[in-house]
Amino acid sequence: MVLEEIRVGLELNDYGMQQRRIAHMRFLGELYNYELVDSSVIFDTLYLILVFGHGTSEQDVLDPPEDCFRIRMVITLLETCGHYFDRGSSKRKLDRFLIHFQRYILNKGVLPLDIEFDLQDLFAELRPNMTRYASIEEVNAALVDLEEHERIVTSEKTNNEKHSETEKIPSRTTSGMSANGQSLSNGIEENGLHEEIVETESDSENGTIEHVAHDDDEETDDWNRDDRCDTEDESDEGNGPGSDEEDKVHVRSKVAEVDPLEEAEFERELRALMQASIGLWSADGSLCLPSPPPPPL
């Protein structure tokens, strides 16, 4: 929606819409600051402001030579989000645009003082070390040098990528062949050795060549025998199989030793108590209490 409004403003170039158009540029910059649009949208809009309507019959209507409003639009947008273009590809894109922007400014001739001061503040904030060109010829020469430098860098990068790819492919093929060759040779040697051992063992035991599956069975039996031997050894070390469980059962079933004298005393007291309790009950089931002792004289 904002991009459409910006384009409509460029198409109409109405003086009454200038404040609204400046607000649109500020809003677009804030959208980039909050990561709602990409940097490519910002640079596309900047270049659109510089070139829209140029080279057509309506150029004098859409962008008159004395009209500097597009310069103010660019300044507003770069003041809002231009400080983020300080590294990587965004920095190179902004450097390139500022050169094109200087050529556009020089085509306008003498600028109003307020626009010139805003431009000085903009370059001091974003690119304080950038050269301000005084003529269109200097700008064109700078653009030619920039394009040549970018072409050289691109070609070198392409050649380096191709060289790295050509180095990786043979190395992978050679390593793969060596690895496969080694594995194949090792496999052949191991298989040959295994066949010789099988033939030797079978000839010595039976006098004939047995099937390889029989060897596998023998190896399985040997393995099982080894496991059983290991298990028996562990059982012997533990004082017989299941020794731990027997120890636990023995401890649980162990009865504490009781003194015979104490046990006889306990039984005697228990019998006396039971006899005393039986004497309190009559044959009909009524409780018989002993008569109280006589009162003292």
Automatic annotation (TrEMBL):
Q: Describe the location of the MIF4G domain by residue ranges.
A: 2-124
Residue ranges annotated as compositionally biased, kind Basic and acidic residues, are: 152-170, 247-257
Give the matching InterPro entries.
Answer: ARM-type_fold, MIF4G-like_typ-3, Nmd2/UPF2
Q: Which residues cross the membrane?
A: none
Q: Name one GO molecular function term.
A: RNA binding
Gene3D superfamilies per the UniProt record, alphabetical: 1.25.40.180
Q: Show the segment(s) annotated as Disordered.
A: 152-187, 200-262
- Compositional bias annotation for Polar residues: 171-187
Kindly list the biological process annotations in GO that this record carries. Answer: nuclear-transcribed mRNA catabolic process, nonsense-mediated decay
Tell me which GO cellular component terms the UniProt record holds: cytoplasm; exon-exon junction complex
SUPFAM superfamilies in the record, alphabetically? Answer: ARM repeat
**What is the protein named?**
MIF4G domain-containing protein
